[in-house]
Every structure is written in C-alpha cells, then in structure tokens.
Write a structure and sequence with these properties.
Elements lengths: L3 H20 L5 H15 L8 H15 L11 H15 L1 H7 L1 E9 L5 E8 L2 E4 L4 H8 L3 E3 L5 E3 L4 E3 L1 E9 L3 E7 L1 E4 L2 E4 L9 E7 L5 E16 L4 E9 L2 E6 L2 E5 L9 E8 L1
Parallel strand pairs: 3-8
Antiparallel strand pairs: 1-2, 1-7, 4-7, 5-6, 8-16, 9-10, 11-12, 12-13, 12-16, 13-14, 14-15
Bound molecules: zinc ion.
C-alpha cells in the first residue's frame, strides 16, 4: 500500500475520529488501525510510517467482505479500497455520513404515459465519465439519457416495453467529495484504460437540486488527486495533495513539492474535493 493513500485520508480521518468519539459507538479494527496509523504520521516529524497493522486489518476485512483471499501485494483498485474504508467510516458514525456521502436521484419517465419512477442512491465515491475536464464530467453525468431499442424500459403502468428517458440529479452534497473518473474503455471487445488527458479544475461547481424547480450551486476546491499509471492489470499509484499553499507529490516513501500542472495529465483517477 503506497504511503500516498494515507495522505489522502488524513484530513477526513481526523474529522471522522471526532465524530466516532462523540457518537460513542464501537469501532472496527479497520477504522482503529487506520486512525492509529494517521496519528503516528501526525506525531512523527520525519520519515515513513510502517502501515502493516492497518494493512493486516484491511486484508482481513476485504477477504471477509468479498469471500476471496485479498492479497495486499497484488495490484488492487484504489477506488475499491477507498470505498471500503469510507463505507466503514460511515457505518461507524452517523455524522460522518454528512461529511462523506452524496445522494443522487435517478428518474425514469415513460415516453408513452409520462409516469416517472424515481430511485435514490447514496455514494461515498461519485463515478463520473471521462471528459476533457472534471466540470465537463459532472455535466455529462447529469445529462438526460434516452432508453430506446434494446434498452427500452419496461413500464409497469403501460405493462409493456416503452421508450423512456432517464434524468439524474444530485440531491445532497457532502463536505468532502470523492470523484472516480471512469477510465475504462472497451476496444474491440477487450477492456482497456482511457489514457486521455483530463484537466483537473481546482474549483468545481456541483449543482444540487433542493426542490423540483430549484437547483443551487455548491462550490468545491480540489485538495488531492490519486493518480495511476499503467494498465488495468498492473501499474503504480501515487498522489498529489494540497498542503497549505503548496502541492505535494506523495510517491511511496518520497514526499516532495509538486507543480499544479502535474494535476492536469492522463494519470488522474480519483479526485478529492472539499466544500468551500
Ligand atoms: Zn408507460
């Protein structure tokens, strides 16, 4: 596990710890060992921290959750591990939900009878399509989609397959916003990675629907980017993290100053924003 992944969780971990303490709920060994690791990072002025206690707890947790042996030394998806950790925080603390979860509504409307069916989803990581920039990804995510042809919708009112449209909106914003860029493509039926260069806007506007007709903008600032180089089956992770007025590149044991331009490349995979 690269050290950089701990940096990414540093701020939210401390916040969540406050909530866990105030909630007075029992916490799991995954949360406990992660927070202990963060505290050791905080108290040690220099050098790397041995994360093995947390990694062992993570390995046990992931194996239990997926019913398959989780090997920490194999290539793993950072988004999957991050989601597990964030979900764990949310299950340990009601208050951390407000800081970490975003809610979305998907509304399917039948073209024939105009009846709508609405489902709500909660996310700790918002998955967005790859676009030229992150604001564009949010716009694409919220675009209305048509359901037709093989994709027609079974309308229970019409009792038959009908053309329909799906509309998406975001209903509640979180303090921290974790965005995963879907860099997965199928080329001639083979799964591959989308290496396009994506402009990582340091400021992001998220439209939040507060009423049927009212949408308000929520402003976020970028605080970290988890990057990945390589293919879907192998590669390397590192992170660029905001620290005061500077950006730091956290790459295994090396933590050095980084240029903001490094954010705008073909490696950005998970972006972390904080509400302004
Ligand atoms: Zn219908």
């Amino acid at each position: 596990m690269p050290l950089s992944r701990f940096y990414i969780l540093y701020r939210s971990s401390l916040l969540v710890l406050d909530f866990i303490s105030s909630d007075n709920l029992p916490i799991s060994s995954l949360s406990t060992t992660l927070l202990q690791t963060v505290f050791r990072m905080q108290s040690q002025a220099k050098g790397a921290i041995d994360p093995s206690t947390f990694l062992n707890a993570l390995s046990v947790h992931m194996t239990k959750n997926s019913n398959t042996d989780f090997n920490i030394n194999e290539q793993q998806d950072a988004a999957e591990i991050l989601e597990t950790i964030l979900q764990e925080f949310c299950s340990n603390s009601v208050l951390s939900e407000e800081f970490l979860r975003i809610r979305s509504l998907n509304s399917i409307t039948c073209d024939s009878c105009c009846e709508s069916s609405v489902t709500e989803e909660k996310h700790v990581i918002l998955q967005v399509p790859a676009a030229d920039n992150i604001q564009g990804s949010i716009i694409d995510l919220l675009k209305s989609e048509a359901m037709s042809g093989e994709n027609r919708y079974f309308c229970s009112v019409c009792d038959s397959y009908q053309n329909a449209s799906i509309d998406h909106c975001l209903k509640a914003s979180s303090h921290y916003l974790f965005i995963q860029i879907k860099r997965f493509v199928a080329i001639d039926g083979v799964a591959g990675k989308d290496h396009r260069k994506i402009l990582c806007n340091t400021n992001l506007t998220i439209p939040i629907q507060v009423d049927d007709d009212v949408t308000i903008p929520r402003e976020y600032k970028l605080i970290a980017s988890i990057n990945h180089s390589g293919s879907l089956t192998n590669g390397h992770y590192w992170a660029i993290v905001k620290s005061g007025d500077f950006w730091l590149r956290c790459n295994d044991k090396a933590v050095v100053l980084a240029k903001q331009e490094e954010l705008n490349d073909s490696f950005g995979y998970i972006l972390v924003f904080e509400r302004i």
